[in-house]
Design goal:
Largest sheet: 7 strands, parallel
Number of helices: 9
Family: Belongs to the short-chain dehydrogenases/reductases (SDR) family.
Order of helices and strands: EHEHEHEHEHEHHEHH
Protein name: SDR family oxidoreductase
CATH superfamily: NAD(P)-binding Rossmann-like Domain
Helix content: 40-55%
CATH class: Alpha Beta
Pfam family, one: adh_short
Structural class: alpha/beta
Oligomer: single chain
Number of domains: 1
Distance between the termini: 43 Å
InterPro entries: NAD(P)-bd_dom_sf, Sc_DH/Rdtase_CS, SDR_fam, SDR_family_member_7
CATH topology: Rossmann fold
Length: about 260
């Protein structure tokens, strides 16, 4: 029997990319899904394309409306009576040099990629504690383990997620709370197109590394396996995954390798 069968899973950033593919694959596994993103009409389309749309509810939200986190959680719990797994997938990337990036862009990235996730996760914590069970799944990035040019704000926000959720795991393991940090490498989504540039506008173009990355289908299969195994951390991608281990033992070598790669 599939360990995730009948679990209530709340996915943020569910309107596209990894979040959308997760919805499709989890629906095939007979999970009960709550899909969140800003655009209600897009969420409806994703729901209708799921294998079991009757077991899919949508909860439109803007993750940076921190003051509404408690009410969003209350609504999410009421939809099926509980939430078993919260998949924090909403986020935005960046493509700009530090010297050419407005400070406001850093604030926007931090609000979306870090504080929005923290707000929703903290709001649902009492529910997990009450049930003595709950699983946070956080879509971070390999950029949460090491850095790369043009992604300074994105790297900073993803590094922050690891700091927060490592503490969450330690403080609430005794309450049955689990944390899985998922670190994608290059995945073929529109993340580069929607990345913020130095003045806050969208890049609106893709790059070869992203286009040649893992398919969302392949990536999500591996991610779901990690969720079922309740792994602490998982790194999913191509050869770029080796950067995590090179960073740990040979940080100067990784510095040279990343600069040589000239990845945008």
């Amino acid at each position: 029997m599939d360990k995730l069968k009948d679990k209530v899973i709340w996915v943020t950033g569910a309107s596209s990319g990894i979040g959308k593919e997760l919805a499709y694959q989890l629906s095939k596994r007979n999970c009960k899904l709550i899909l969140s993103a800003r655009r209600k009409e897009v969420l409806e389309k994703v729901k209708n394309q799921c294998s079991n749309p009757k077991d899919v509810k949508i909860l439109p939200l803007d993750i940076i409306e921190f003051e509404k986190a408690d009410s969003y959680v209350e609504i999410a719990i009421d939809l099926f009576g509980k939430v078993d797994i919260q998949i924090n997938n909403a986020g935005v990337s960046q493509r700009s040099l530090i010297a050419e990036t407005d400070f406001s862009v850093y604030k926007t990235i931090m609000d979306i990629d870090y504080l929005g996730t923290v707000a929703l996760s903290k709001a649902i914590l009492p529910h997990f504690m009450l049930n003595n069970a709950g699983h946070y799944v956080v879509v971070s990035s390999l950029m949460g383990k090491f850095s790369s040019p043009y992604r300074s704000g994105y790297c900073g926000a993803k590094h922050a997620l690891h700091g927060f959720f490592d503490a969450m795991r330690m403080e609430h393991e005794k309450h049955g709370v689990r944390v899985t940090m998922v670190c994608p490498g290059f995945v073929n989504t529109n993340i580069a197109k929607s990345a913020l540039t130095g003045d806050g506008t969208l890049q609106e173009s893709n790059d070869s590394a992203t286009q040649n990355g893992l398919s969302t289908t392949n990536f999500c299969n591996k991610m779901i396996t990690a969720i079922k195994k309740e792994k602490f951390e998982v790194y999913i991608g191509g050869k770029e995954v080796k950067g995590v281990f090179i960073k740990r033992f040979f940080p100067k070598l990784l510095h040279k390798l990343v600069l040589k790669s000239q990845v945008r």
